[in-house]
Amino acid sequence: MITGKNYIGNRQSAEGGKVYRTFNPQLNIENETGFTEATSNEIDAAVTLASKAFETYKNISGIKKAEFLNTIAEEILALGDILIQTYCVESGLPEGRAIGERGRTIGQLKSFADALVEGSWVEATIDTAQPERQPMPKSDIRKMLIPIGPVVVFGASNFPLAFSTAGGDTASALASGCPVIVKSHPMHSGTGELVSSAIIKAAQKAGMPDGVFSNLNGSGIEVGQQLVKHPKVKAVGFTGSYKGGKALFDLAAQRDEPIPVFAEMGSINPVVLLPEALKTKGDTLAKTYAGSISLGTGQFCTKPGLLLGIKSDALSGFIQNLSEEILKIEPTCMLHPNIYETYNSNKKKAISQHGIEVLADYPSDTKPNHAKQTVATVKGDVFLKNTSLHQEVFGPYSIVVQCENENQLEKVILNLEGQLTGTIMADENEITRYSKVIAALQNKVGRIIFNGVPTGVEVCPSMMHGGPFPASTDSRFTAIGVHAIKRWVRPFSYQDWPNKLLPEALKNENPLGINRYIDGIQTKNKL
């Protein structure tokens, strides 16, 4: 049952402020349950409780934290049909997507649990003492990663499960030893409350301290702002728009104690279409990219929003085929009327720019909140002069840039902002001739794809989901995969400490049996 209340640690708060409702974009009506916005008192209570919980939680073993994460996964699955139904009525997304995303969320939790059980993620490093060294003796110095404190996680509109309440940010922060306060996304607050109930139940079953997790509602920006400014909050995780992420980043930097904001803020994900590839498989590529552009109504952060090619008959043929293929796809529902309206507004602004030619715009009437897919094209020199064309249009829209030659193609890439992904579509025999283009693209993206599509982000240790600004606020870290845990920790050194007082990861006996660097050599050996 959904109550519409805030979770302050293990209890649902009786206090509350303004009430708002979620929206069913398929039926174009508000959902029934009202959600109570968190008050300033509730915000302070949640953060204070998290700070107190941190004193205990940071010292809980990896095995126990892994049990907690695995229990969260079990409790989410135990929610059953009500979670899937609520997800669908609040997002407009189909049941298959909901089930798939639930599986992804559970998989993420289990992957962090596995990393905790294995234990080497703490990067234990030991440099043994050399008391006889001349002219100065060397101390015994040992280093490992430790958690930084309470983390605020903002739910994402386009992934109500995998990037929200128990998504990658929450899973990685809890794995690191940091309590989490979630600012639930107002578009799927019911989904968020159900998942929160599962996390709270798991915390109680696993014996975690009260306050290790809280969930706060808010329809506007006030709750989020108060959380980021709270002096006991030590870091922020965000997935969403550039405007929202940059505002939080600036707010955190203005604090008396600035804190890191790890924001993933969108991307147009350039795709480079090299000539030979277009000649040999242009028809197939057109169909593939029509599907990728419109997948999930274009509401993935890795949607290919920019296609780059060198003028040729093959490029012209690809453009024609892409225009035809994308119009064959039936329009689908966007997440919310506000997102639908923003898509239409941003698309209208983009295609009204000088030199833009609309190639395909779905001609028929659609159901409410169903987005019409659009493809446009522009010459390379026009694109270079108008940086507004670089801006993401969140939805099923993409633009093809027709460059005069390889030099202009390279220049276009060099003038792009940071991106999550870049893709090279090429014949294996031609790719070596475009080393400068590939080097330029590598400097702009977090992940480069060869002969594929950027949509579909595998959850695995080798995945980099981030990129140079403004794709993310810190290109050194990923938001997906077990290495996402590194956002919520800091290196800490012990110098000349007695062995019995050291953390388990740094003791001579290596009781955890983890990989460690000892005097520069990676080993599981004891000292």
Provide structural commentary.
The chain is of the alpha/beta class and 527 residues long. The protein is 36% helix and 19% strand. The protein has 14 helices and 21 strands. It has helices at 40-57, 62-78, 81-91, 95-118, 168-176, 189-205, 222-229, 242-253, 275-294, 313-327, 337-351, 380-385, 406-414, 435-442; strands at residues 7-8, 11-12, 19-24, 29-36, 125-127, 141-147, 151-154, 180-183, 213-216, 235-239, 261-264, 270-273, 306-310, 357-361, 374-379, 397-403, 419-425, 445-450, 489-495, 516-518, 521-523. The strands form 5 sheets. A 7-stranded mixed sheet has the order 14-15-16-13-12-17-18, with helices on both faces. The chain has a 5-stranded mixed sheet with strand order 19-6-5-20-21, with no helix packed on it. A 5-stranded parallel sheet has the order 9-8-7-10-11, with helices on both faces. The protein starts with 6 loop residues before the first strand and ends with a strand.
